[in-house]
Amino acid sequence: MRLLRTGLGAVPLSDLEGMAWPAIPTPLASRMLSLQQQLAHSQWWPQAELRRWQFRQIAPLVEHAFRTVPFYGERLAAAGYRPGQEITEEFWRRLPLLSRVEVRSAGAAIRSTALPQQHGATSETSTSGSSGTPIKVTKSAAEQTLWSSFALREELWHRRDWSAKVAVIRGAGNATTGQRFPSWGPPLAGIFATGPVSAFEIRSDLARQAEWLRSENPDYLLTFGTNVVFLCQEFRARGWSLPRLREVRTIGEVIEPETRRLCREVWGAGIIDTYSCEEAGYLAFQCPGRTHYHVQMEGVLLEVLDERGNDAAPGESGRVVVTTLHNFAMPFLRYDLGDIAEVGEPCACGRGLQVLTRMVGRARDMVRLPTGEKRFVWQSTAKLAEIEPILRYQVAQTALDELEVRLVAARPLTPAEEDAFRAAVIANLGYEFRFRFVYRDEIPRAAGGKYFVFRSELETPAPG
């Protein structure tokens, strides 16, 4: 695993009093380190070998879905599936793509009625709604262990100093004055000693975010890509710097080359991006020393399909379709994520993991308040996911005090459902806007394929 490449020496924390070294980790940490040992080897396998093992893992997943997930029982039977059969590429192509609308409409029928006991307890979360279609996702403890192991792999790839200070600007409850934590949190904190974390609420005014970040002066920053642009513009306008900053970590959005250049220009730091989604976890990590991405093939089968449904070749773009390999609680088989990705050539680093050159997906804008404040649009959609008729939505700011809610819905919302939607958006944006609800057959993507779940349509748009 070469754990000694990190700044701390990466000696695990011991679970036994008085036995600091060699450490005897907790059972969970031992599992994660064991998985890390396997991942350290499999990343160098040829891609064809990785693909073969993916289908070996898909076989028991498909049989489980056929037996215990009502939605898939019908879907797989219609594709000609018979229990115990080999899952071939030919059969896989016969399985129709799964849409977000289908997942949302299926409800409990897409969840397993008999999760294997050894997979542990289940937990539920909601997608970010960045696609405009928030859905509830059920995950098992076993799947979460895999998620943690991939997170550890990403840390090791980029050789971070775990004793350093991290600043996080994303959803942080009501912490508009900032919060501090003694460690980096899971998964690292359960295995290794780490430095502290400071967190700030992304829904706060941009100027307050910048002032807080300057006062914290962190070694690492974690936030959303468009927020990096807004913050860099604010720092440049004020002539500020972050002298200790080593790296900016971004999540949840497409990172354009211009964003990387701006970050280098203003802060003197590079960007390390992660491609993930709530439904399937980590999809791809940025290659160490490069700007393209390696698909985490041990955890997800990721297809990039052209307009004819065939695999896109290197240099070509297509829709991203994912299959989660280990979530038996709520399988996603050939799930159309709604993103567009470009396939890359095999990487010179030697890893056999599939390469994505870039993604074209979700994007964000800034909301402007009548007070003059500018705020990043943070989507917290647990409440929106409970409003069943909504198939897709977009919120547009058409005036300083007015929002237009564009809905693709199974039926018009009731007054109570409109009130619930209104309350959720106001809680996210922090202002009592006036609302206008309109219904549409479809909500188109913007130029380049990006989908804006929120967009500003004011005469003077927000920067970025």
Unreliable residue stretches: 1-8
Average pLDDT, all residues: 89
Q: C-alpha Rg, in Å?
A: 22 Å
Total beta strand runs: 22
Q: Strand pairing plus helix content: what structural class?
A: alpha/beta
Strand percentage lies at: 25-35%
Q: Within the largest sheet, what's the order of strands?
A: 4-5-3-6-7-8-9-10-14-13-12-11
Taking the sheet with the most strands, its summary is: 12 strands, mixed
What is the level-2 CATH architecture name of the domain at 368-456?
2-Layer Sandwich
- Coarse morphology: globular
| Oligomer status | single chain
CATH fold call of the domain at 368-456 = GMP Synthetase, Chain A, domain 3
Q: End-to-end span in angstroms? A: 40 Å
CATH class of the domain at 368-456: Alpha Beta
The helix content is 25-40%
- How many alpha or pi helices? 11
Question: Can you give a write-up of this model?
Answer:
There is one protein chain. The protein is 28% helix and 25% strand. The protein has helices at 27-42, 47-68, 70-78, 89-94, 100-106, 141-157, 206-216, 225-238, 257-267, 382-385, 415-429, and strands at 122-126, 136-140, 166-170, 179-181, 197-201, 220-224, 247-251, 270-277, 281-286, 293-295, 300-305, 317-324, 335-343, 355-360, 362-363, 366-368, 374-376, 390-399, 402-409, 434-439, 451-452, 454-456. The radius of gyration is 22 Å and the shape is globular. The chain is built from 11 helices and 22 strands. A 12-stranded mixed beta sheet has the order 4-5-3-6-7-8-9-10-14-13-12-11, sandwiched between helices. A 4-stranded mixed beta sheet has the order 20-19-18-22. A two-stranded antiparallel sheet has the order 1-2. The longest helix is centred in the N-terminal third of the chain and has 22 residues, at 47-68. α7 (206-216) crosses α8 (225-238). Among the domains are: 3-42, no CATH class; 368-456, GMP Synthetase, Chain A, domain 3, CATH 3.30.300.
